[in-house]
Amino acid sequence: MRSPQSLRNGVGGETPTPSRSPRPTIPSPHDIRFQSTLSVHKLRRFNSLVLLFRVATFVFSLSSFVFMLTNSRSQPRWFDFDASRFVLAANGIVAVYSLVEMVASVWEITTGATLFPEVYQVWFDFGHDQVFAYLLLSADSAGSTLLKTLRDSDTCSNTSAFCVQSDISIALGFAGFLFLSLASLMSGFRVACFLIKGSRFHL
Amino acid sequence: MRSPQSLRNGVGGETPTPSRSPRPTIPSPHDIRFQSTLSVHKLRRFNSLVLLFRVATFVFSLSSFVFMLTNSRSQPRWFDFDASRFVLAANGIVAVYSLVEMVASVWEITTGATLFPEVYQVWFDFGHDQVFAYLLLSADSAGSTLLKTLRDSDTCSNTSAFCVQSDISIALGFAGFLFLSLASLMSGFRVACFLIKGSRFHL
């Protein structure tokens, strides 16, 4: 597996270069300018899509976090059950992480370079996306099983505010998971590009 | 995004070709032979690793399925709860899928070609790996939350056989999930190779 370090950036603001061939031929200057414009256009679209997924993940997981946190007016409160604590914690972690990734994404769109050195950035993004997507799904599954069990007993009929608000929180958490898993696909593609071509650009 | 269809196979038994450059230069026959031997060696290692993950997933999910299915001697049986039915179904589905993928993997190692046409095979593998990994994790999280709730009530103290056997089944399911997510990383890498280079080989 090749891993040339030639196209690594992180501090400087190099413009993205088109794909390199193993034995370089010499293209005309017109070719280079055309290729480069096309690449910049496609990369901007790719990065904008990633930013969109980040924003959606942030919005949904923050809403889920807030809904669960304010779920303490009626008798069974969110901190009475392990599963609802898990939902709260997972959504909080994902909201903070998405905020950081939004900053990194905006930085990359505006300056054209990654916030950290490229090799760390692509692995950091992909590793955290994968783990946090699994974390969020696991928390939401646990939460919905808890609610199912509470509904079978008579907890939900007595004080239905808790159950309704938990339902909303978990549904928002599932929406956050959906967008996080999409972002995870994109960052996984960037890691694969980095492994194959030595750069996060696929063009 | 380039997607040349030149290296697609599925019926024939072509040997893997080394990476192509946009404007082909003419290497010596010795170069080609050396490159080709190296590629075949590395690809065999990659495919063997995938097969290993498939076998491990199959063994663990089948064991989990059997443990849950035979969990009907004492009073609460596996079909009394939604979550344990979910665990049984998810592990059964993953066991069958892993068996199919094992056959496909052995076929690819022995003949050098994919079972289906390459474009379908890489997307089929990756799509199912992702979805089934999420399915299995969700089922196991639901199952462990159910057991936690049962332990808080007095169901587990009265008839502990059900709870112990469910614990084992869920633990085996988590092990299956671990190997399935590793297989999903490998098949995701093959999809990225296919998108970037037009072939599932990264060499």
Quick overview:
Two copies of one chain form a homodimer. With 203 residues, chain A is an all-alpha fold.
Structure overview:
Two copies of one chain form a homodimer. Chain A is 73% helix and 0% strand. Chain A has helices spanning 29-69, 82-111, 118-152, 155-158, 160-197. In chain A, helix 3 (118-152) packs antiparallel against helix 5 (160-197). The longest helix of chain A has 41 residues, at 29-69. Chain A starts with 28 loop residues before the first helix and ends in a 6-residue tail after the last helix. The A-B interface holds A 1, 21-23, 25, 82-83, 130, 134, 137-139, 141-146, 148-149, 181, 185, 188-189, 192-193, 195-197, 202 and B 1, 19, 21-23, 25, 82-83, 130, 134, 137-139, 141-146, 148-149, 181, 185, 188-189, 192-193, 195-197, 202.
Helical segment count of chain A? 5
Helix proportion of chain A: over 70%
Which spans of chain A of ≥5 residues are poorly predicted at pLDDT below 50?
Answer: 1-24
> How does the helix and strand content of chain A classify structurally?
mainly alpha
Protein chain pair with the most extensive contact, residues per chain: A-B, 30 and 31 residues
Main β sheet profile of chain A: none
The succession of helices and strands of chain A, N to C, reads HHHHH
What's the multimeric state? homodimer
Q: Give the number of DSSP strands of chain A.
A: 0
Distance between the termini of chain A: 19 Å
Rg of chain A, Cα atoms, Å: 22 Å
Gross morphology of chain A: elongated
Share of β-strand residues of chain A? under 5%
Q: Would you tell me the overall average pLDDT of chain A?
A: 83
Pfam family, one (chains A, B): CASP_dom
InterPro entries (chains A, B): CASP_dom
Transmembrane segments (chains A, B): 49-69, 89-110, 170-196
Keywords (chains A, B): Cell membrane, Membrane, Transmembrane, Transmembrane helix
